[in-house]
Amino acid sequence: MEKYWTPLARTLTPYVPGEQPRIPNLVKLNTNENPHPPSPRVLEAIRAACDARLRLYPDPSATRLKEAIARRYDVRPDQVFVGNGSDEVLAHAFPAFFQQDRLILFPDISYSFYPVYCGLYNVPFERIPVDAQLAVQLADYQRPNGGILFASPNAPTGIAVPLADIEALLQANPDTVVLVDEAYIDFGGASAVPLVARYPNLLVVQTLSKSRSLAGMRVGFAIGDAGLITALERVKSSFNSYPLDHLAQAGAVAAIEDEEAFTQGCDAIIATRSRLAAALDALGFDVLPSSANFLFARHPAHAGTALQAGLRAAGVLVRRFDAPRIADYLRITVGTDAECARLVEVLRPLVQAA
Ligand code: PMP
Fold it and tell me: How far away, in angstroms, is 3 Cα from ligand 1 center?
């Protein structure tokens, strides 16, 4: 079969997403989805858009959505790019900004899609080690590069990067693009969006999947200088000129405009996160300081594989990464209070066993 494949198809190492089993009653804390439903206004907007207009192609420039994002983030619509989840926004950023003959830099512990895009677009990269506390130290990125990419808050650690460090990095790197993946920024950490006005090489990527409970709708966006946005649009239109379908555009506008649902939703997750962190701490876990909708935690006396398997046997899914330094950590999505209580109830006898 592979005889028909290109060398590229043979060498790709695709991203493996977290499991999405359709088994009832699972406590699913493995893929950082929001446990609360999206704003009712989003569902109304999608219903209202669901009519004969589906016959037509959607707005290729997503004008209403870009205007809504621009208003919300205090930028101009030509500083906004939208795509099918922030994964697609990131995917378009690679051929737009990163070259095949210049190393890009990203943390050694980070979102595992980054090396996948490098493989797809043949972009060489160097992984910069995170520090002893597993935090990204941007001072270590002061070296020649073809671009810099990191997530803040980082995944899977949840640790945010200080805004002052991001600004220092931008000042030291005026000639290459600095891409900040802010998929989890609404749960903590300071957003780099206000820096966009002063740094034409800064691209900030966000998503509606987490803080706006819309992972199933697939909408992400980037905010940056209009020059960067034009490059992204050129790449996008060379793939598919209609990145977002008509229903997703309608739903996304409503999500961005429902500030009250957004704030309440984020506050609820942050409150549950503190309670869960305290409960894990009481069980003897080392819990990293999280600014995201998940916790990254390990127990000094128990292997991550065993804890994950024990949870799974009780119907509780969490994520774990087979990577150096973090193999014993569990990445636990902040679910509802009831889901988190169930997780703790299952963990207690597992960690108390000799
Ligand atoms: N960036 C990071 C750091 C993530 O963890 C994720 C979610 N897995 C994404 C981007 C992509 O999210 P989405 O495509 O749903 O916007």
Answer: 33
